[in-house]
Amino acid sequence: MFSWISNLLRQNNLIGGNYIESYAGGAGLAFGLVLNGLVDRIFINDFDRSIYAIWDCILNDTDNFIAKINNAQVNLKEWQVQKEIIKNQQDYSNLELGFAAFFLNRTNVSGIIKGGPIGGMKQSSKYTVDCRFNKKYLIQKIIQIADKKTNIEIFNLDAVEFISLIVKMANRKSLLYLDPPYYKKGPELYRNFYQHNDHVKLSQILKDINLPLLVTYDNCDEIRELYLKFDKFDFNLRYSASLKQKSIGSELMIFKNLKMIDKPNLIKGV
User: Fold this and answer.
1) Rounded distance between C-alpha atoms, residue 253 and residue 160, angstroms
2) What is the C-alpha separation between 81 and 117, in angstroms, rounded?
3) DSSP state of 65
4) Spatial distance between the Cα atoms of 154 and 44, rounded to a whole number of angstroms
5) 97 and which of 53, 104, 156, 193 could share a cystine (Cβ 3.0–4.6 Å)?
6) What is the pLDDT along the chain (270 residues), one digit of tens a residue?
């Protein structure tokens, strides 16, 4: 995804501009773009408070966040502790919640916070719960991101509310990227999944957006109908699940105000 988006920015003279992501999740793509100097500023949003808490801790409570990573015991007992924090997040501080979400993202299959641990509850597979929790690497990356704090704006808003706000702030040299919850499998994958009316509401606000716009969705008739007047094509997708790359078929790429030179063959990482 990073390589393809980088080329898209170059093809559309958007290098050095803004990158805006409404459903940013782990925000790996956004952070990669700003760390590599491909964009000057990133604006990232997620409605899930636990996801927002990760970013807030990285940028605004860096030392304490790093200390929690250093002190963490990465095992099933700790996994269960962090799982309970996510379930009862209203009872915990931003630091505790942010670390819990970060811990589960690194220890769960496909990084899905509501999912199960890598290796299963019996830890009997080749990969175990700690295999993606390289403390040295993670801390180094956190420090790099924190050093770019002045180039990063974070938001914890409903996506439609965020889009309405951001179009007033962003200049023309901006790419707005959206990867909304899947239409068909949303309830299985997301803590904050969408109903049909939510997908309709999103499509309606995007019709009035004049910025360069890119949307990726599951390839289904309902979404094709909602975005009937947009440019679009289907593309191959490989998903890095269970530490392997495997095909899950095609997705739909929807866009406007962009030149598309090559069709992507993307890997969605975790």
Assistant:
1) 19
2) 13
3) H
4) 5
5) 53
6) 899 999 999 999 999 999 999 999 889 999 999 999 999 999 999 999 999 999 999 999 999 999 999 999 999 999 999 999 999 999 999 999 999 999 999 999 989 898 999 999 999 989 999 999 999 999 999 999 999 999 999 999 999 999 999 988 888 899 999 999 888 765 555 556 688 999 999 999 999 999 999 999 989 999 999 999 999 988 876 655 444 445 456 789 999 999 987 766 655 543
232-203-27-90 Cα dihedral, nearest 10 degrees: -160
Give the DSSP H or E segment for 68.
helix 62-71
What residue has token string 């390289």?
Answer: 134
Query: What residue ranges define each of the domains in the chain, with the CATH number in brackets?
Result: 1-47+158-270 (3.40.50.150), 52-156 (1.10.1020)
Cα 251–chain centre separation: 17
Q: Cα dihedral angle (244, 250, 256, 259), rounded to 10 degrees?
A: 70
Return phi, psi of residue 9, to 5°: -60, -45
Nearest-angstrom CA–CA distance, 48 and 157? 8
The pair of three-digit structure tokens given for residue 139, joined into one six-digit string: 């801390």
Cβ within 8 Å of residue 113, ≥6 positions away:
50, 51, 86, 101, 104, 105, 191
Q: In the chain, how many H helices and how many E strands? A: 11, 8
